[in-house]
Amino acid sequence: MSYDYTLSVDGNVAYKDGDTVIYAKTSAEDANPDHVQLYNSYRITRLAALKTAVNGFLGQLAACNAQIADPAAKNRAGIVTFESKAELKSRFTDDTAALEGIVNGLTDLGGTNSAKGLKLAHQLIDEDKRANADSVVIFFTDGDPWDGDEAIKEAKSLKDSGTLIYAVGTFQTDDVNDLTPYSNRYMQAVSSNYPNAAGATLSELGERAPDSDYYMNAADADQLAGIFNDIWTAISSKPSSPIATTTESGMERGAVTFTDELGEYMTVKDFTSVVFAGEQFTKKTAETSEDGKTTAYTFEGEVAGNPIYGTANLADLVVTVTHGEQTDTVSVQVPEQLLPLRLYSATVDQNGAVSTTINDTFPIRVFYSVALKDGVEEALANPDEALAAYIAANGETFTSNKYEANAELGSTTAAFTPAKSNDFYYFVNDTPLYNTENTNDPAKSVDANGTYHYMRTYYADNAKHEQWIAVSGADANGKTQTGANGNVYVPAGTVRMGLANYTVAKQSNVTATATAAIAPRWDGTAVNVALGNNGRLAFAEEPAVPTPEPSEPAASAQPEAPVADAAPQAPASESPADTGSNVALIVCIAAALLCAGLGTLKLARRGSSGRHAG
């Protein structure tokens, strides 16, 4: 399309599109809805520049989606326009070609009814948002709104629901952080820079979020395109959950489920506390089912989000005790939003220099006390058949947790479904196989009896590293494809082979408990990790101390009830076992650390050895 530019007699710039004459805005304060913003460097309209910028954003989204094997995990976008009214142009979709068609068909809008636009965007998110997806609104306007306070209220409602808002403007300002102009205050208040803004006055803005940069302003088309590129970079580089947050069974939230079976004749007395984000929570409620078979514990407390821990409600932690005839089984279900994860970041500059950072975190810890079931101690003198068999095998030693001498795998487990974006468990890109550790020796076929290799790239210690990984032909068989060049590759979305190779044996096993400290195994699309960091502790009996014979017979003392010690304090520094891989086993490490707080309570019984297996 070609434009005829004219200069009106009053000095205002205008152009002719067919038979229509369109006038440019005269200043940042020009509120005439029939005037449009022109960019001096290219003399194109605000709308044309916006179309170019948005289509560039959609192109990056499409390129990213092409690398995602799971259709349910692809990024989606929707489009809402607003003038005197708001209109939903597209619901959320990953069909970027259709979205680009909608963008290209947009016409110039009159008016700036921002509140209606933000309200409709909020409605779209509420109706269409996936539970496992972050929601982001890119709010673009080229003029001050008719309804600024209402728009700010709608924006706050969005922010309160967890939506991130980028505000993009085309105002005449050299410094977006100069709060003197109303336009800057308004855009700052709408954006996530001020999450609690109630209005556009200085007193209504509230505190600015630390390190926030969610309001951007473009002086020309190039800057506008650059802003949308920067927004895409910021959004796409956000860390993702290592576990699937929408499971095949239909759960809206993924979780890591810890299961801990107690020793025979043991029962849970109480759940004393949860430690999360460095804070201890003790307030809780307990509810036992009508049939008495289960007890559910619900903790109370909320944690404000920060770069390491997300906003969390302890009520989302699902703690259940199943009461059996012989013992109890504890289940702790930690939802995705409560997982304390190490945030590992790698940045590569234009010269190829690498910088890496890691934010350490502490595990979530759940403390509970256990003791002998009621009546067991009294029954030792006259045991029934089952208890007699137990005593014959174990003596009068009762363990707080299930104990199997010298078993390969621990009985406490952590189960979860890895996200297909988690490259420890899945190939996230098509990956060539080689016969040897040589990229000039590609595999042309797979022999079940052979050994093959693939190259893995990772970033650590401020450098880029390459690592050859060996895989057996038996593991690779049936999981590869052959490309047009005749070379064999593993397609993206395939589970990584040889997960059992990451089993970590204990350096010593003096307690004769599980021989493996940690042992992950695939179970369909889920991973089950056996945790063997429990131990069997033995305490020598106190020597008998002679007591002077009383002048009169003393009344016989009642048997003393078992004593469950207070929850142990976490060590000052906790380090996961070396998995032999340079890629962090994020979820399994979290699982191992959590278990350290689950089954380490000491059971002491006076008059016996007081031995304990955790």
From TrEMBL:
The VWFA domain covers: 19-231
| CDD domains with a match to the protein in the record | vWFA (cd00198)
Record-linked InterPro entries: Collagen-VI/PIF (IPR052229), VWF_A (IPR002035), vWFA_dom_sf (IPR036465)
**Source domain of life:** Bacteria
Q: Which SMART domains match?
A: VWA
Disordered: annotated segments: 542-576
Which Pfam families does this UniProt record tie to the protein?
Answer: VWA_2
**Which Gene3D superfamilies does this entry report, sorted A to Z?**
von Willebrand factor, type A domain
Show the ranges annotated as biased composition (Low complexity).
Answer: 552-576
Note the PANTHER family from the entry: VWFA DOMAIN-CONTAINING PROTEIN
Name of the molecule in the record: Fibronectin-binding protein
